[in-house]
Amino acid sequence: MAGAKESAATVYVVDDDPGVLESVRWLLESVDLSVRTFEDPHAFLAAFDDHKPACLLLDIRMPGMSGLDLQDWLQEVGATVPVVFLTAHGDVPLAVRAMKSGALEFIEKPYNAHQLIETVQHAIDIHRQQQVAGAWRDRLRRRMERLTPREWEVARLVVDGLSSKAIAAKLGLSPKTVEVHRGRVMTKMGAKSSPELVQMIYEAGSDVLNGSS
Q: Given 136, 160, 191, which residue is the final one in a domain?
């Protein structure tokens, strides 16, 4: 069952050494992982899909675009795929830069097979969790888009901890009217309680509290 689960994910390997690509592919496919190899970062970018669970094994020093350059580019476009550097050039400054830029791990060649497999599986698990959280956040944001400006105004004040009576006084409405708006907010968001509503709004992203829905 574990192999079937992992087969839905993809391990991208980018390295200008064909021998490394072949050995890594053989190792990872031996544990039922789907592997795609590339000798050139640009070829990888043409095939990359960040909407599916994945892991990127990346060499640092390559002709043209380096591994660090590719990592920077992925960050600029908001890609979420975990990056694991696999390189023979494991000097401290490069490792520090890679990790500060968000690399999950920095493994030196020749690599330990058991360590590499565990790291890749861990990276895929992380990416799956990120995608589940992202899908939930997107659903919450779509629900919030259904709120009217007044309903969103009431929701923000609920997040601030105000009671219906306090919200009514602040907005110049009757408490009964506030309760009606509050009930509609709860229904549209699918929240069963005020604490759950607050949690949903925070899970949708802190940026939504700084603007309108």
A: 136
Q: What is the largest CA-CA distance in the chain?
A: 74
Helix/strand/coil for 106? strand
pTM (2 d.p.): 0.70
Cα dihedral across residues 198, 199, 204, 206: positive or negative? positive
Q: In what order do the strands lie in the sheet with 10-14?
A: 34-38, 10-14, 54-58, 83-87, 105-108
14 exposure class (CB count in 10 Å sphere: 0-12, 13-18, 19+): buried
Q: How far apart are CA 191 and CA 188, in angstroms?
A: 8
**Residue where a domain terminates, one of 112, 136, 160:** 136
Q: Domain tally for the chain?
A: 2
Residues 128 and 96 occupy one common structural domain: yes
In the block, which residue shows the tokens 């110049």? 172
Q: Over its length of 213 residues, how does the chain's per-residue pLDDT go in tens digits? A: 344 444 479 999 999 999 999 999 999 999 999 999 999 999 999 999 888 899 999 998 888 888 999 999 998 888 999 999 988 766 667 777 888 888 999 888 889 999 999 999 999 999 999 888 888 888 899 999 999 999 999 999 999 999 999 999 999 999 999 999 999 999 999 999 989 999 888 888 756 666 544
Residues 196 and 114 in one domain: no
The alpha carbon of residue 118 and the mean position of all alpha carbons in its chain are separated, in whole angstroms, by: 20
Q: Are 191 and 202 contacting, i.e. CB atoms less than 8 angstroms apart?
A: no
Structural domain of 186? 145-210
